[in-house]
């Protein structure tokens, strides 16, 4: 895997970092080194896979609205209103769930109707993923809420696209260094190091530290599909140390997964469970959560499960 960290000098062995190749024959013209285009692309893509390279927060939101039709949201607003208006059902809403529903109805400008679905002046508050405003505020406006973010959602929910868009928005605003890493690809590369395998992507031996260093040094790091970490205990230990380091250095880190931190780390399939690291679990549970499901739908699902 090619690691890309902006604003850090990468010295090419062929051109010495000049970006051009000068022939020993003075009659021959200098030519661009192959590393030049790689560096240009690197600064643009931050290691983001091609399928997410065009992601922006605006593009994500447009896609999100198309995935969640207005009629579906209005139906859920009707249901939320019915739960609140019925004394028996409202009495079952514990832990402030009734206040959360009221807040969404109020923010949405919801008005019930005697004919069909109710009306809402602004369904954004019911539609957006929970934690979305906080994430976009951090990325685009510098509102400091948390150094660790956990973005969860089912496959095809947009979690990786949102993480890539947030990374790009943050870097565009701050010019910090940034890196997007797929844990599935990176896990295999680390295993190649452990077993000293010269793969086509690792033709020369690289140590674990050499591979991990870009992840440690990036000012902002996205670790995609964290729940797909290989079950090798050495990988779990390496990533636990990485997360400990980034936490202690207050370096923003975004992790994506299908479920929340506790379910991921305590799954029987997770290598992290072998570490028994409760402090890491607590830190990740304290991450700012973003769930790639409409906020109102998340609340109704939670109510139905209690």
Explained architecture:
The protein is globular and about 85 Å long. By secondary structure, it is of the alpha/beta class. The longest helix is centred in the N-terminal third of the chain and has 16 residues, at 70-85. 48% of the residues lie in helices and 12% in strands. The protein is built from 14 helices and 10 strands. It has 3 domains: 1-45, no CATH class; 50-58 and 130-293, Rossmann fold; 68-128 and 296-305, no CATH class. The strands form 3 sheets. It has a 6-stranded mixed sheet with strand order 5-10-6-9-8-7, with helices on both faces. Strands 1-2 form a two-stranded antiparallel ribbon. The chain has helices spanning 34-45, 57-67, 70-85, 87-91, 97-108, 124-127, 132-141, 159-174, 183-194, 208-217, 233-248, 261-265, 278-285, 295-305; strands spanning 20-21, 31-32, 110-111, 119-120, 129-130, 148-152, 178-182, 220-224, 253-257, 288-294.
Give structural attributes.
306 residues; alpha/beta; Rossmann fold; 3 domains; 6-stranded mixed β-sheet; 12% strand; disordered N terminus
